[in-house]
């Protein structure tokens, strides 16, 4: 559960801090070719998970990976064993999840932005509001239902992360790699129920994940409503 919560924060919820500004930028009148950018950013989401894991596994490879080569340009030190280190595995997984899902959330936010009446921003401009004030006082309040929806999807998906760590760390034989640092709740659930054949225990784990998702989305809803009432 600790591994799952860490990846939820760094790989699922963190992406919204990139997706929303990207959506605002692409929605700007100054940006041309919006359809191209929407397609380009959305492509990672529809790419096969196994393909993505293989690509990132090569990028973070200890001996021939692009990441170690880039780091080596700035400092001379032994290569980092990204997928052989407990912290490195989390870094790789978080980077992969952000790359894969930022575009999806950006498209969700972009749809919400395009539903905001242009008259609101025009009125704010007439009153002398700058770009920051317009987005803080108009865009964010108007987007609250979309933000709640997008964060809720990230919580649900983040608590069910399985394919990425399973493929990256070598399946059930390695169980999350060094120190089980890539072992998530869903990963452990699949192993328990379908590899160890302890279906009862697996069902109990599934219920715990379900309760955790409900609790976190209740907090998400409470925070959203509190901000909405300001």
Keyword list:
230 residues, mainly alpha, MetI-like fold, 11 helices, 73% helix
**SSE series:** HHHHHHHHHHH
Q: Give the tally of structural domains.
A: 1
CATH level-4 homologous superfamily: MetI-like
Q: In percent, how much strand structure appears in the residues?
A: under 5%
Instruction: Kindly report the average pLDDT value.
Output: 89
What would you note in describing this structure?
The chain has 230 residues and is mainly α. It has one domain (2-228): MetI-like (MetI-like fold). 73% of the residues lie in helices and 0% in strands. The protein is built from eleven helices and no strands. The chain has helices at 2-13, 16-27, 34-46, 49-59, 66-72, 86-114, 118-126, 131-158, 163-168, 185-194, 199-228. The model has no long low-confidence stretch (mean pLDDT 89).
Give a short summary of the structure:
This protein is 73% helix and 0% strand.
Task: Give the arrangement of secondary structure elements.
Elements: H1 2-13, H2 16-27, H3 34-46, H4 49-59, H5 66-72, H6 86-114, H7 118-126, H8 131-158, H9 163-168, H10 185-194, H11 199-228
